[in-house]
Design goal:
The complex is a heterotrimer of chains A (285), B (383) and C (293). By secondary structure, chain B is of the alpha/beta class. Chain B has twelve helices and 15 strands. In chain B, strand 12 and strand 13 form a beta hairpin. Chain C has one domain. Classes of the chains: A mainly alpha (285), B alpha/beta (383), C mainly alpha (293).
Chain lengths: 285, 383, 293
């Protein structure tokens, strides 16, 4: 089918980016579901991207192994810094993770010998395929579904509702927070590894404040109550600029306005809008 | 009835003849930063390309066929550059494309063009690692590696500096790449460096670094920056009482330096193949035409874009179009390397370089640099 | 060199403090991380520039114009965005995302109207007298900025303690419901805070635009970055904290450039931030939140 061929040639990068953005949004959904506002995911994405890219370029390891390392290293880093950082809460945690993110970016920038510094790493072979990304997203969504129905999942919701009460029930809140933080970091790292093997080139500036804000926006816009919110958020933020392409100069302005309108009219995110619409469509019980 | 049939037949034949003679259009693509921070470079590039297209079309086009330039906004982001390249190549089916604006984006999007076997012609990418992507990658923006040694030598002769301080932006690929080339050139010329300082994009205060430089007793300051930071740097240096000459990369070759650092813009040395003061007739014609249609002086981005379109046009004129896209795109790639042209930026030809794997790759620009210094709000060419 | 670097540190600190004052005010009272503060700051700079270029206003009048424009922006921000979200009982992250949208929109509009390249004030406007203090140069503009930062802080502190409105702000921040029950005009106060914060941001925008002589659409972004660092250091929502955090960051940055190396400047600043957060999360002046079971 020629139409499908042309479509895929033109939009394959876009579709795959939707996938990696969904993974990023899921990584922040996970931490938000536990009541943690962490903004370090952009930095974890960067660590995953550089780790996997360097392994491919210098050691030419098989893709699956590279992906695993890309997810593993950020998880380890999260384990190390999570301990002291997760004592904080609320906006303080957000700010600490933001500061940490900046430090990571600066380290990558200055470690020129290994990472190429500001010049970035180029010539990364294109290894990401639609199948890999779809599989990853599917597996994560399935895992989250299982989690939500399990005791662990319910404990997480309890922590996000009232931490003190949960602690009083004898739950080791610190351990749960750390688990969620580490898992979120692994997801972000995986997304980074996928992205690096999709766009041939990575540089430190991509994993800074703007990326962090974008990930947060995807998570909140889609809705923090359900993993499907993250899917919606990732999808919308990625394809919106493409949909608005015809607007030329007005594209960024309309983009900003749409963001404002969505949040104003559905502050809990798009997912709630979808759920509300579905509920209204059902006959009254 | 018979007469209507004959009339209809004649009209049909005439229609076909009319169709084949003037309706042919050559579609070219341009992916530039039209919004976002990089649009300050993308906008003059667009103006330069469009000026060239209107001139070429006005004087007969390519053997009668008109050039149609399709612009897409890549916003200075690498993902957008990839998406836009793909759209131009696969949906709009252009013959070749210009751009993208930033070297960062080029690293990500040029491989797409290479894989699709479509010529990508960069007019503003100067970092390393771009033309080495493959033999469909061309650029007419001269790399700093070729120009900086000349700038340093001539500036050294005229100002007599013995040791320099270096200041560069360490988080931008353009300024960092410029710094690497400066450092190599300084080493080869055996000029000692008293201190090396850095700044980041978006900084507004450079006094800590400049104070340190002043205390190091250098004779000149080597600066790798774009005008957005470079002009405030010069202004703040003069305010701190530093009167040393500045030696800049081609990021500082812009008449905007005079607006932004007015009264503080003297004694800046820059090397570039294009100078607004170059009295060559092609340059003067270009500057006059640009001023007429845009009401402002052109800068280096506009000049290089303008020449790039003319260079591409020369290649297009030699091709026999078969109507089959793949064959035509391949023909463009074969016709381009041998083009020689003398435009606003002077005499030009291509030089093929070798890629990472040792095989011949893309094409860099070969041009002579003009070294200028600023005085009283003008660039003065130094021989 | 030490004297000059000291002077550099104070003037940079003043710049940061000025920006952070408005930012911390919105967080302290409205409990919103106002990521549009950078855009409002930029708006102030452009308003003043247009005042000078289009209407040929003198410097002071241009600054007043900038303050009027940004005060309007602050009012609009509260009326059109924060108030509806409060009414809808939005989750506490929603207003922050909305401010991101506002920042994108404002920046793009300005870029569309005026272009992305740097603009500058006409040279006559810039005070060029430089004074020499013990071997260091400082311009009159820098002195004005430092003075203004202190003066504004004093004014705000006085206002918060001595005026009725100011006294109502603290209980308002703690619990809007309780304050409403006590007869406080909650919505009006929130609006007023947003206006004052935007006004401060706009003023900072003009002064910093004069200081660096560069006006461009994205100028708010790096300042926002630093502003966040300043309020963390000083304590979120604390006025004195914004000032001292600003000077602390200014000194940290200048002295790390001077004595460590300029490449490490941002690493030092953010590393310090991280350390402060771990050791004293409420910042130098903030109050530790305590929840007792």
């Amino acid at each position: 089918m020629e139409w499908l061929d042309t479509f895929w040639s033109t939009y394959s990068t876009l579709v795959l980016t939707v996938g990696t953005n969904i993974l990023l949004a899921l990584s922040i959904y996970l931490t938000l579901a536990c009541g943690l506002l962490t903004v370090a995911n952009a930095a974890f994405m960067g660590i995953g991207a550089y780790t996997s890219a360097l392994l491919t370029i210098h050691a030419d390891l098989p893709f699956l192994l590279v992906l695993s390392c890309g997810a593993l290293l950020p998880a380890l880093v999260a384990l190390v810094i999570g301990h002291p950082t997760l004592r904080l809460s609320g906006v303080y945690l957000a700010m600490a993770t933001l500061a940490f993110g900046e430090v990571v970016r600066i380290v990558i920038l200055n470690a020129e010998e290994t990472t190429g510094g500001a010049l970035g790493l180029n010539g990364i072979p294109q290894r990401t395929s639609g199948f890999d990304v779809a599989l990853a997203v599917g597996l994560v969504l399935y895992a989250l579904r299982c989690l939500a129905c399990s005791r662990v999942g319910r404990t997480m919701i309890a922590i996000s509702q009232d931490e003190v009460a949960t602690e009083l029930m004898g739950i080791n809140v610190r351990a749960y927070k750390l688990l969620v933080f580490v898992f979120g970091a692994a997801l972000a790292g995986l997304a980074g590894a996928f992205n690096a093997h999709l766009t041939f080139f990575i540089s430190p500036s991509e994993y800074g404040f703007e990326r962090g804000v974008e990930i947060l926006t995807m998570g909140v816009l889609g809705g923090t109550g359900s993993p499907w919110g993250a899917v919606l958020g990732g999808l919308l933020i990625t394809i919106l600029p493409e949909l608005l392409r015809g607007l030329g100069h007005y594209r960024p302005i309309v983009n900003g306005i749409i963001l404002i309108v969505i949040i104003l009219y559905s502050p809990r995110g798009l997912w709630y809008l979808v759920r509300w619409a579905r509920r209204s469509a059902q006959p009254a019980r | 009835m018979k007469s209507t049939q004959i009339l209809g037949g004649v009209l049909l034949v005439l229609g076909c003849l009319g169709g084949t003679s003037g309706a042919a259009e050559i579609k070219l693509g341009a992916a530039e930063a039209l919004t976002g921070n990089a649009s300050q470079y993308g906008a003059p590039i667009r103006k330069g390309l469009e000026l060239a297209v209107s001139e070429i079309n006005g004087s007969g086009g390519i053997h009668g066929a008109k050039l149609a330039l399709i612009f897409e906004d890549e916003q200075g982001k690498k993902e957008e550059a990839i998406n836009v390249f793909k759209k131009l190549i696969f949906q709009d089916r252009v013959l070749l494309l210009f751009g993208p604006t930033l070297s960062n984006s080029a690293q990500a999007s040029d491989p797409v063009a290479q894989a699709a076997k479509v010529v990508v012609f960069g007019t503003s990418n100067t970092a390393d690692g771009i033309t080495s992507i493959g033999n469909y990658v061309f650029r007419n923006s001269v790399t700093e590696a070729d120009i900086l040694p000349v700038t340093l030598k001539i500036a050294g002769q005229k100002t007599g500096f013995k040791k320099v301080a270096v200041l560069y932006g360490n988080d931008d690929i353009f300024t960092k790449s410029g710094y690497d080339n400066f450092r190599k050139a300084l080493q080869e010329l055996r000029v000692p460096v008293t201190t090396t300082e850095t700044f980041a994009k978006g900084d507004v205060d450079f006094k800590p670094q400049l104070t340190k430089i002043k205390a190091s007793n250098a004779d000149a300051i080597v600066l790798s920056a774009l005008v957005a930071e470079g002009a405030p740097i010069m202004a703040q240096a003069r305010q701190l009482g530093i009167t040393l000459p500045f030696i800049g990369g081609n990021g500082m070759n812009s008449p905007r330096v005079f607006e932004l650092a007015k009264d503080y813009s003297d004694n800046l040395w820059v090397g570039s193949p294009w100078s607004v003061e170059n009295p060559a007739s092609e340059n003067k014609r270009f500057i006059a035409a640009y001023q007429k249609s845009h009401g402002a002086l052109p800068d280096q981005f506009a000049a290089q874009a303008y020449d790039a379109m003319y260079i591409a046009a020369q290649a297009l004129k030699r091709i026999k179009f078969t109507g089959k896209l793949e064959a035509d795109r391949s023909a463009v790639r074969d016709a381009l390397p041998v083009v020689q042209w003398s435009g606003a930026t002077g005499a030009f030809k291509f030089r093929q370089i070798t890629g990472r794997d040792g095989k011949p790759a893309g094409y860099d620009a070969v041009q002579t640099a003009i070294v200028m210094s600023t005085k009283d709000n003008r660039y003065v060419i130094q021989k | 060199m030490l004297a000059q670097q000291f002077v550099n540190a104070i003037s940079l600190g003043g710049v940061y403090a000025l920006f952070a004052l408005g930012f911390t005010l919105v967080f302290g009272v409205l409990n919103v991380l106002n990521l549009a503060h950078g855009a409002v700051f930029m708006l102030g700079a452009y308003a003043a520039l247009q005042g000078v270029v289009l209407f040929r206003l003198p410097v002071l009048a241009a600054i007043v114009l900038a303050m009027v424009v940004t005060a309007l922006a602050g009012w609009a921000l509260d009326r059109m965005i924060f108030a509806p979200l409060r009414a809808r009982q939005a989750p506490h992250l929603a207003p922050m995302i909305a401010t991101i949208g506002v920042a994108i929109t404002l920046t793009s509009v300005v870029e569309g109207l005026f272009g992305a390249e740097n603009l500058r004030f006409p040279i006559q406007m810039l005070p060029s007298e430089a004074f020499s203090l013990g071997g260091a140069q400082i311009t009159s503009l820098e002195l004005k900025i430092i003075f203004l930062a202190f003066a504004l802080m004093a004014l705000l502190l006085w206002g918060l303690k001595k005026t009725r409105i100011g006294c109502a702000l603290r209980p308002l921040a703690e619990s809007p419901k309780a304050a409403a029950l006590l007869g406080v005009n909650v919505e009006g106060l929130f609006s007023a805070t947003s206006i004052v914060a935007a006004l401060l941001g706009g003023m900072a925008g003009v002064l910093i635009a004069l200081y660096s002589n560069a006006v461009f659409p994205h100028m708010g972004q790096p300042m926002l970055h630093k502003g966040i660092a300043v309020v963390i250091l000083g304590g979120m929502g604390d006025i004195r904290g914004a000032l001292l955090g600003g000077f602390f960051l200014g000194f940290a940055e200048v002295f790390s450039v001077a004595y460590v190396g300029s490449t490490m400047r941002d690493a030092v600043a953010f590393g310090l931030l991280f350390a402060v957060l771990l050791l004293r999360p409420e910042g130098l002046f903030g109050k530790a939140e305590q929840r007792r079971a």
